[in-house]
Amino acid sequence: MQKKNSNKTNRLLLFQTEQQIFDKIIKKDHPFRKLEKIIDFKILIDPLRDLYSDLGQTGIDITKGFKALVVQFWEDYSDREIERALQENNAVKWFCGFGLTEDTPDHSYFGKLRKRIGAERLENIFNQINEILRGYGLFGDTFKFIDASAIITKTHLWEERDKAIKEGEEKLNNTNVKNYASDKDARWGAKSKTNIWFGYKRNHVVDMRNGIIETVLTTPANILDFQVLDKICPQNCMVFADKLYDVKSSYPILEKNNCHSGIIKKNNNKLKNKNLDKWISSMRMPHEGNFSKLRKTTRYKGLVKVHFQCLFEAVAQNLKKAITILSVC
Questions:
Q1: At which of 89, 117, 145 does a domain end?
Q2: Domain contains 252
Q3: Residue 306 class from Cβ within 10 Å (0-12 exposed, 13-18 middle, 19+ buried)?
Q4: Does a structural domain hold residue 223?
Q5: Angstrom distance (rounded) from CA 1 to CA 153
Q6: Are 89 and 45 spatial neighbours (Cβ–Cβ below 8 Å)?
Q7: Residues 141, 105 within the same domain
Q8: Which domain, by its residues, includes 195?
Q9: Entry pTM
Q10: Which residues of the chain have a pLDDT value below 70?
Q11: What's the CA gap between 17 and 22, in Å, rounded?
């Protein structure tokens, strides 16, 4: 018993010493220090502990693992890059809760952790984080911006196209590509005759007070923007959107959700008001930059995994905005 208490005391002293070292080598205004002050990750991640059994060997604490994923998407690291960051970057070690000499996970751990968490649980965490940010007053809930952007899959289709033609297909298209592509959920999408891609689409609802992403929906690239409006439409606000949403089906959805239309009218729409549309464009413009900061390519294959990517990118972007706006130190 005495030896056990001695070991516990030694571990406590080591922890206190390491914290003193971290306090000296990590700047007081480091972004991760600010993040720790606005988000209590232990409470946020506590429901994920049910994913692990109490039996068997103790593994890496889920809070440490989730924080490592936050850093990964914050810095746009690959699995091998976040492995190295945990080994070499003291700020990352401190934020994730690892000691200076403590063993950190290798790259294979992160793929397993993402699969264990899954997109559904991550979406719950994303919504919880937004409720925390709403508590800080970062949401206005008056004006919302809706838009979609392309995510190009890493799949290459030259060999798949040749195989399809060899098997009697006239060409490789959205009706048969799932039979040949390694990413079965990806599809071709187009913004114009020249802007065509193979992959997915991220649909965002952005609160226009501070540009915080409120809703994320990921679809194959061939799903048109207005076709998912009923799934992402906010309530009791003015919704700003581009011409792609100017279709008959959009306006009943806005009305049902008690929303005022800020949709830019198409040029052939008899109700088009150029001055109004010019004002709408000026209101939308600052928030279109939300998409420019996100990856243009997928990390993974499959709709569920790509949705996980889009959700975590939104989490990282919202948290970056939060620490800048709140100016915590």
A1: 117
A2: yes
A3: buried
A4: yes
A5: 58
A6: no
A7: no
A8: 137-326
A9: 0.90
A10: 1-16, 52-58, 328-329
A11: 9
20, 67, 29: which is closest to 48 by C-alpha? 67
User: Which residue has tokens 């996980």?
Assistant: 308
**CA-wise closest residue to 228 among 209, 250, 212:** 250
pLDDT one-digit tens code per residue, 70-93? 999 999 999 999 999 999 999 999
Q: Are residues 87 and 178 in the same domain?
A: no
On whether the CB atoms of residues 62 and 41 are closer than 8 A, the answer is no
Element (H, E) at 145: strand 143-152
Vertex 96 angle, CA 136 and 70, to 5°: 60
Taking 3-state DSSP, the helix, strand and coil percentages for the chain, each rounded to the nearest 5, stand at 55, 15, 35
* The two three-digit tokens of residue 225, written as one number: 């923007």
HEC profile for 235-292? CCCEEEECHHHCCCCHHHHHHHCCCEEEECCCCCCCCCCHHHHHHHHHHHHHHHHHHH
| Residue 324, amino acid | T
Which pair of structure tokens corresponds to residue 163? Answer: 């195989």
Answer whether 244's CB lies under 8 Å from 192's CB: no
Pairwise CA distance, residues 183 & 162, whole Å? 17
Q: For 153-221, list the strands marked E by DSSP.
A: 187-190, 196-207, 212-220
Q: Final residue of a domain: which of 117, 151, 185?
A: 117
Structure tokens that stand for 311 in this block? 């959700």
